[in-house]
Structure to design on (225 residues):
């Protein structure tokens, strides 16, 4: 397996534009997580899915952020409209279960909003 | 919810020295404590984990200790090498919710 695959690796966009980040989890993993990493706040959990169902989205900063998982092999994180403070590295991770098991991270998407 | 505090935020050691990173957690029900290593520009990767029924676990040069009474756990790296330079994250969960991560420790090993 190629591991968790994220795209794009880098994204530069102008404030106000829509941004869509994509993730393909490891085949057979039932849980998928979206994290945001910044120097100030570290690794923050935005949302996690179990069996394609959003279980906890309490970390989603505001209504500008939305996430979907239409099937077991694909998830998106959308920011609309984007703002400069959204600039961060966004990681997707997957695991066999939601807790007590190793989370495998993707390479991340470095988002810059100018 | 769980709260994980990690110290120090930065740690500089000479090659060959030992490094210790400490974390405390708030939820006494937490029972799984992984450590992740993130090299510059790379993804976090699990290096070792410990469960609450074990007090210590070792894997070559790295070891983790857990003190449930005091609610703290530590990562120990012996005979540090320059390739150990990275950011290390501790995390905790009670098994019903997702991992709560510490803020990370940047370890710099100087040759």
């Amino acid at each position: 397996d190629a591991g968790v695959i994220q795209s794009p690796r880098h994204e530069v966009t102008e404030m106000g534009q829509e941004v869509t980040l994509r993730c393909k989890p490891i085949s057979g993993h039932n849980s998928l997580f979206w994290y945001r990493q910044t120097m100030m706040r570290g690794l923050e959990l935005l949302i996690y899915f179990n069996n394609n169902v959003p279980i906890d989205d309490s970390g989603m900063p505001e209504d500008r952020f939305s996430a979907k998982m239409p099937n077991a092999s694909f998830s998106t994180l959308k920011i609309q409209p984007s703002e400069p403070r959204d600039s961060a590295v966004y990681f997707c991770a997957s695991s066999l279960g939601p807790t007590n098991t190793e989370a495998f991270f993707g390479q991340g998407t470095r988002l810059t909003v100018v | 919810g769980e709260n994980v505090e990690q110290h120090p935020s930065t740690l500089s050691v000479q090659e060959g020295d030992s490094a210790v990173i400490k974390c405390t957690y708030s939820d006494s029900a937490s029972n799984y404590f992984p450590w992740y290593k993130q090299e510059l520009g790379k993804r976090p990767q699990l290096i070792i984990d410990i469960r609450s029924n074990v007090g210590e676990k070792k894997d070559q040069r790295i070891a983790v200790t857990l003190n449930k009474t005091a609610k703290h756990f530590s990562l120990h790296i012996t005979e540090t090498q320059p390739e150990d330079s990275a950011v290390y994250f501790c995390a905790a969960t009670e098994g019903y919710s997702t991992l709560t991560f510490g803020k990370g420790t940047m370890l710099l090993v100087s040759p």
